[in-house]
Amino acid sequence: LLLCLLTLTLVAAVFVACTDEAEKGAYVLSDKGTYLASKKNAEGDKIPNLTLLYEQDDALKNTYTMIAVDGDGSGFGGALQTPVNEKGADSFIKWMSLASTRTLIADFGKADYDEALFYLIDNAQTYTGDVASLACGTGDTAKIRISTTTSVNDTGLLDYLSEKFEEATGFNVEVSSAGTGAAIQAAKNGNADLILVHSASSEKEFIDGGFARTVDGLTGTVTDSAYPARVSFMYNYFVLLGPTGDPAKVKDAATIYDAFTSIANGGYNFVSRGDASGTPN
């Protein structure tokens, strides 16, 4: 039961639906960035019946990774109806790996929430080349299809970065947001040029299936030498949310495993959208 609870999933899209259950003592799992964006929203608190009860456990570290889709990869088994925009995907991944872009990521959210929503992986691969080389040229396909997880979209990070990327390069970013499972499946269906997700096991399955390729031109140490196509670049943490009264007393738990054990042993509700997202990976 504990293992099942640890693999249950929830992010902002289900917060509203969970409110009634939270009043009855339900617990939910989210990433910290999505929680802050929902709790301290400019339109008001979107999750008034939920409060943060447990965070900053190393077991809840949430790593985000970019992977370029290989349009000629063995996973597709033939020509795609819409060719993969490899140049566009490479440009986006390299632009995201610039020192200047990494600064934007590190600072995102601080002005609104008094803390960052995402943190940089210190030893991540970076791009040190000429930004002009990343521009959309004459004859290039301008549209780049990104299939991504809900957290980078719902927090506003991807919109913020995409706008700046478009201004710098002339490409046009088209974002499709869903749980990691659905985001990866969209790429398998030929509907993405790159994915930005947060589930290491699912990412490796995607690569093993012949759907991915390695982006050349990045410098630094590959995070996972066995899977160089994975460009992991930032992280945040999952957090356990629940009613203010905290009937399972998870706030006093020594570890997140103890917190979930208390929920399970007490028979308290845990709400999940259950769609194979990367929460947790």
Fold blueprint:
Blueprint: H1 2-6, H2 15-23, E1 28-31, H3 32-39, E2 51-54, E3 61-69, H4 86-96, H5 99-107, H6 110-113, E4 119-120, E5 143-148, H7 150-154, H8 157-169, E6 172-177, H9 180-188, E7 194-197, H10 200-208, E8 212-213, E9 231-242, H11 256-266
Parallel strand pairs: 5-6, 5-7
Antiparallel strand pairs: 1-9, 2-9, 3-7, 3-8, 3-9, 4-9
Please tag this protein with its features:
281 residues, alpha+beta, nine-stranded mixed beta sheet, 9 strands, 17% strand, disordered N terminus
Q: Overall 3D geometry? A: globular
Category from helices, strands and their pairing: alpha+beta
- Residue share in helix: 25-40%
Q: Mean pLDDT score, rounded?
A: 88
The arrangement of helices and strands along the chain is HHEHEEHHHEEHHEHEHEEH
- What is the CA-CA span between the terminal residues? 17 Å
How can the largest sheet be summarized? Answer: 9 strands, mixed
Radius of gyration: 19 Å
Tally of DSSP helical segments: 11
Strand coverage percent: 15-25%
Which consecutive residue ranges, at least 5 long each, have pLDDT under 50?
1-24
Question: How many E-type strands?
Answer: 9
